[in-house]
Amino acid sequence: MSSPVGLDRDRLAELGAAAAGRMEQAGVELVALSFVDNSGISRVKAVPVAKLATVAAWGVGASNSFDFFLGTDSIANGEYSLGPVGDLRLHPDLDALTVLAAQPGWAWAPAWRYDQDGQPHPQDTRALAATAAAQLADRGLTARMAFELEWIATDADGVPLPGPAYGYARLSANHEYLRAIVSALDSQGVDVEQIHPEYAAGQFELSIAATDSVRAADLAVLTRETVRTVTAAYGLRASFTPKFEPGGVGNGGHVHLSLWDGQRNLCAGGTGAFGLTSTAESFGAGIFRRLPALLAVGAPSVVSYLRLEPHHWAGAFTAWGLENREAPLRLIRGAAGQRDTAANLEVKCFDLTANPYLVVAGLLFAGQAGIDDEARLPEPVSVDPGSLSPADAAAAGVTRLPESLSAAVDAFEADEALRDAFGPQLATTLADVRRAEVAELGSLEPAELCRALRFLH
Which residues form the GS catalytic domain (predicted)? Predict the structure, then answer.
C-alpha cells in the first residue's frame, strides 16, 4: 500500500509505466480503478493499460458528488456538497494492482482520491483507514483484520438456490460454481480460509485470512466483486443484502480483528478474561462502548435493521462473551495449541452494505479511544442475551442496540471521539447521507424495502 503522498508525479509515472508493462505481459488491456462510496457501493472508472503511467501520475477524473450518493443512486444534499461543481482525481494504488482471473483482459486497483491541486480528499475513506492504521502503528501496535462475506445465490429470476442449511447437498449441487470462486480468488492472491453453505436458502459464506487492516478492506472489495462476476458467469445472481426477505436469516459482514505488539497477539496469553491482555481488553472495550455509534458505519442502511433481530445470531444486544454467537462482540480463542495466533475479536452486528474502509477506520479509532480511556469490558454474557429476563438484563447492563438507522446516526453524532477522528466533512456527510436514505426508504414496508435493495450491494 503506497499512497501518492506529495504526488511525486515523475516517480509515479515511472512506477505506472513499469506496472503497465507487467500488465501487458499478463494479457491485461483495461484497468478498473475503484473506490467505495459512503453508502457502501463500489464505484469505478476504467482506463486502457497503455494509459496507466499517465493515470498513476495525474489521476483520472471523478466527481466529488459521489460522496453523497445513496445506494439507490439518488444524490443527497449535504452541508459539504458542491452539487455538480468540482472534480477529484483517482490515483491507483499500484502496490495493490491485481490481474482479474474472472475478467480476462482486466486488472483492478483500489484508488486514492485527491483534489486537482494534489491534496488528499478529506472524504477519502481508504485514506482514513490508512490514517487509523498509522496512528495505531505510532503506538507500537498493529491490527490484523478479516471480513467474512455472506451472500444468497439465486437463479436468474431471483429464486434462491435450493438445499438444506449448511447442507452437503447444496454444496455438491453447486460444486463447480464454488470451486470457480475459490480458484479465481486464489489466482488473485486472496487467501481463502473456508467456503460453505450457510443457514438461509441459497446462502453461502466465504472467509478470508487475516491481514493488515487496509489490505483487509481491499480484499473485501475484490472478493465481493469476484463473487459477483463468477456468479453471473454461471447464470446466477448474488445478493449481499442484509435481509433478502422479511423473516429470513440475513447476510452479515462480520469483521475479525486481533491486536498485535510485534509478533505477540495481545488477544491471548494475558491475565484478563479468557486470556485477553489489558491492552486488548481496553481496545475491545472501546469498540464495545461505541457499538451504537459504529452501527452508523457498519450497518449503514435502512434494511440493516431488519437483520438486527434477537435470536438470529446477528448481535442485537449490548453484550459480549466467549464464542457467543448472539453477542455483537465475541472473543474467539481458537483451538488449544493455536490460541497465541488464532485468538481474535469478532464484530457480528455489521453487514455488507458498509464501506469496508469506514469499518476499518471506525473500529481502529474506537479501539484506540478505549486504550486512551483504559476502558474495561463488562462481565461477559454466556447465554443468549435476548433470553434474559428484564431484571437480569438490567443487572448485566444488557440493552438493545439501535433498532433503526436514525437512532444509530444520533449515536454517531453524539460520539465525540469518532466524529473528531473522521473529521468534520466526512462525519457530517455520513450523517447527511444516512438521513437521506431514511427519508427515501424509511417508510417502505419490510417486503418492499427488501425487494428494493435486494441486488444493489
Answer: 125-457
